[in-house]
Amino acid sequence: MNYYILSEEVFETIEKDNVHFMHKSMDRTERLVATTDLVSDRIRKFNNINTCSSYTFTNHSNWVGDGTGVEVEELEQGGYISQVDD
Amino acid sequence: MVVPSSGAISLIGIKNEVDQEDYDAGEEEYTNISLTNLATQTTFNANSGSAPNSSTPHGMSEWYGYDHDAAASFVNAKAVSKTLSTGTANSINFVDTDDTFNFTGTTAWSISFWVKAGWSNSLNTNIHFFIGQKQNASYQLSDMIKVIYTESTNRIRLQYGNKTTASDAWTKQGEWLFHSNSGAYAAGYAAAGLGSTYWSASNRGYVNSDNYTMITVTKSSTNAASAMKLYWNANNAGAPPITYTSGSGSPAMSTTNNRSWSVGSNGVANGEIKTGNSSATVYNDLTMWNKELSASEVSSLYNSGTVMDATTHSASSNLVGYWKWEGNGNATVSNDNFTISGGSAIVNK
Fold this sequence. Notes:
- The complex is a heterodimer.
- Chain A is of the alpha+beta class.
- Chain A has one domain.
- Chain A is 28% helix and 24% strand.
- Chain A contains four helices and four strands; from the N terminus they run βαβββααα.
- Chain A has helices at 8-11, 49-58, 60-63, 72-77; strands at residues 2-7, 19-24, 30-35, 44-46.
- Chain A has a four-stranded antiparallel β-sheet.
- In chain A, 33% of the residues are buried.
- Chain B has helices spanning 11-20, 35-41, 186-192, 295-302; strands spanning 78-82, 92-96, 109-116, 126-134, 144-150, 155-162, 170-177, 213-219, 228-232, 235-238, 242-246, 259-263, 281-289, 319-323, 331-333, 339-340, 345-348.
- In chain B, the strands form two sheets. In chain B, strands 1, 3, 8, 9, 10, 13, 14, 15 and 17 form a nine-stranded antiparallel β-sheet that branches.
- Chain B contains four helices and 17 strands.
- In chain B, a hairpin with an 8-residue loop joins strand 8 and strand 9.
- Chain B has two domains: 11-63, no CATH class; 78-348, Jelly Rolls.
- By secondary structure, chain B is mainly beta.
- Classes of the chains: A alpha+beta, B mainly beta.
- Chain A binds chain B through residues 23-24, 26, 63-68, 70, 73-74, 76-79, 81, 83-85, and chain B through 86, 120, 122-126, 140-141, 152-153, 155, 173, 175, 177, 179-180, 185, 242, 244, 246, 272, 274-275, 277.
């Protein structure tokens, strides 16, 4: 699995069936993404699931509104459904 | 039978009511019965709608309608508010030490509560409604059952499972989403009444007259995500359209470990507590049942939107936990009282 921060525009171009997890930034302009695809046009790439989660806790004001972050458990479980998750 | 409210009444009948909570208990060989003695020596039940006063003269008619074992009338004036602050100092929790609530993957259970959404649609994370987990657990998943709302995806998630070491985790999870009126998601869409907009304080969907939603999750004794059901008020959203299963189901959830149960938290043992953000999320009557409530039983509990006395519910013999938040976190059923800490508080509903 690959963990990225992508712009909204780039996210719209990737293969949604391969997206395992997606979370919008607070301003809705970026997407935290777990996908099996390799994406070269990215804002940030994480080495693994733990650094990805940690980044959201460190930069929580950009990613969640309650001072915490996206937990590893949430990234593992995924659950992104392209038909219903805009 | 209580003392009749009119007509002729007898001293023996009144004595029977006071001694045996039954006006018609029959004639005993009482001696020295007098209106004065009955009026001055009886500790009156304040729940009775009528009772004699202690002033002379003591008239027979003062006893009309007296009920010595009248139950307290049901009151629903208060609720519990989960503070917007985080941290264990602001928790609403108790530790079950007698295994009353040690539900497992192979037992049937139901959890129901009323919630008034206090989060905005920009929280962008999870609202943690209710969780039980092993006391002082090293892992959040240890003997865990939790109900959350994932605001960023507009889904209610019910999850349970266990983890005792770094490598033996298993979990069953079901999710219901509410903004898609198609296919497997249509039942959730119809049940919640949120439309295409996500659930928040400004879009509460179907609520009662106090803006509360009764959320009920049930599970049969089958150890599977498909064994769960969700009800929004009395509306049956059915089995989860989205499921996630991981691990083998072993080790089984413990039936003997102490468990911490917490409202508005993702687990006391792990120290984090998440809640709303625009205004406090408020919770009202919480019930736990050791059976899978049926659709008709959930409908009965919803009571057309009027919070009812769950001890009078048709399934009350399976009611193992009941907290009304009427002034404190004390249980009406079970011996486990919630401690309400820090900024969390009892509030008017």
